[in-house]
Design a protein that fits this description.
The chain is of the alpha+beta class and about 150 residues long. It has helices at about 5-10, 25-45; strands at about 50, 60, 65-70, 75-85, 95, 105-110, 125-130, 140-145.
Length: about 150
C-alpha cells in the first residue's frame, strides 16, 4: 500500500515575487544608446555620396551628375534620351524617348535603385538590365543615371 502523505507536505506556500524596479542608471544608459544609434543613422543617411552595396561588389554613386550603381556587369545595357513619366499599359513607371519621331525608339523603365522622378524632362544616359515585358517592346530596370544637360 501507498503511504499517506502528510497533509502538511501537500500544501506549498505561494511565492509572491516583488516588482523589480529598473535602476535610473540603466534607463539613462539605454536612452543614450538609442540616441547614439539614431544620430549615427542620421549622419550616415545624410552623407550618401557613396555607399557599398551588400557583398561589397559595387558602390552607389550620388553626385550632381551621376546617381546609381558602379557595377557595370549588373547593368550592361545603355541608352540615351529624354525621360518622361509614365509607362506602357502598366509596364514601367517612366519612358526614355530616344527619338521623338520614332516611337519604336522608346525604352520603358523601372528602377529599384534610382528615383527616376528626379530626372523627368531631362536628357540622360541610363545603364540598366533589359528584361522581357508583356506589352512593352523594351523594358529596362535602371541601375545608373547620368545627367547630360
Amino acid at each position: 500500500m501507498e503511504k499517506m502523505e502528510n497533509s502538511e507536505n501537500l500544501v506549498q506556500p505561494i511565492l509572491v515575487e516583488k516588482e523589480t524596479k529598473i535602476p535610473k542608471t540603466m534607463l539613462i544608459v539605454g536612452t543614450l544608446i538609442i540616441l547614439a544609434g539614431l544620430g549615427t543613422g542620421f549622419l550616415l543617411a545624410k552623407n550618401r555620396s557613396t555607399m557599398v552595396l551588400p557583398g561589397g561588389k559595387a558602390q552607389i554613386l550620388n553626385t550632381q551628375k551621376v546617381v546609381g550603381s558602379t557595377d557595370a556587369k549588373a547593368y550592361p545595357d545603355k541608352a540615351e534620351g529624354v525621360l518622361q513619366k509614365g509607362g506602357f499599359e502598366g509596364e514601367g513607371t517612366h519612358k526614355l524617348i530616344m527619338n521623338p519621331k520614332d516611337p519604336s525608339q522608346t525604352a520603358y523603365l523601372t528602377s529599384t535603385l534610382v528615383n527616376l522622378d528626379d530626372f523627368v524632362g531631362k536628357k540622360i544616359r541610363i545603364w540598366g538590365q533589359t528584361f522581357a515585358g508583356q506589352k512593352a517592346a523594351w523594358l529596362m530596370d535602371v541601375g545608373r543615371v547620368e545627367l547630360l544637360e
